[in-house]
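Database export, one record per block. Field names are fixed; values are copied verbatim from the stored entry.
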Amino acid sequence: MTIERPVLEELVQKDSLNVKEVELFRAVDCWAGRECKRQGPIAGGSVKRKILVEKIIKGIRFPVMEEKEFDSVLVCGILTQKETCDLVTFFDSVPNTSLDSDFCKVKRKVSPYRVSRFPSLAYHGSWEHSYEYYDMIVLSFDKDINLCTVRLFGSKDHEFRVTLCIKVEQNKMVIVDTKEAKFLSRHVESEMENYPGFDIDFVPPIALKANTRYVFRADINGPPSWFGEGGQCWVNHSGVNFYFDNPSREVSTCVETGQFSEFLFTLD
């Protein structure tokens, strides 16, 4: 609410914002309301429009909103009559309909969130990959997510052959996805500390359901790797609660230590 107008102008035009477009509009509307109080005029829709100026309004991507979200925009009275008519017609028409008003129809390029189950990384030795015990962890969450990447620990400049399988715990026959490939460790910059690791990406991301326990099993073939310690059984990130648990069988990785350093995800 306290940022200067040039900062707001730059912000709404960014192509990489992890925010729903309707939430961005609501924040801009609140900013305009505060400016009205600061400058003196009554905070009506037309007054807010003058305060926001065209550059800010045109930076908001109304066409990418859901129709029910756009309905909440209409009551604010910030859009002109022509813009309102154009957008209502757009939402009521078939996909790919042209739009007279010059609002961007392309969704922003959302960067994934990154959640770690280790508050800090301690390396007092090397993690041996056993052929007898797999690296496994059970993961669940209280909101639907789109899983983009599973990140594993590696060791500097070494290659690993990995088979990653994701299953629904309640029904082992339900395989969500499987990845098998060779991966070369790279330098990973983390909020915790930097370490050698590699990413197993899912393109497109996997839609995982809330309140479902998923088993992540990694069969890793390669030299000893780094590992994490002090793992947490519960982590909150971006409004999502992540719950980590041990599988029913004896494995190498567990909640407290081992593999599965980070998970990258987006929200709908």
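Remark 1: The radius of gyration is 24 Å.
Remark 2: Residues 113 and 265 are 5 Å apart (CA to CA).
End of record.
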